[in-house]
Amino acid sequence: MAGRERLIGAPTRGTTNPNRLRRVDRWLTADPAVVALLRATAPPLVVDLGYGASPVTTVEMARRLRTVRPDIRVLGLELDAERVAVAQAAAGPLLEFQRGGFELAGTRPAVVRAFNVLRQYDETEVAQAWQLMLDRLAPGGLLVEGTCDEIGRLCTWVTVSASGPLTLTLSCKVSTLDRPSTVAERLPKILIHRNVPGERVHDLMSTLDTCWATAAPHQAFGARARWVHTVHLLTQRGWPVQGRPSRWRLGELTLPWSSVAPLP
Question: Is the pTM of this model over 0.90?
Answer without folding.
Answer: yes
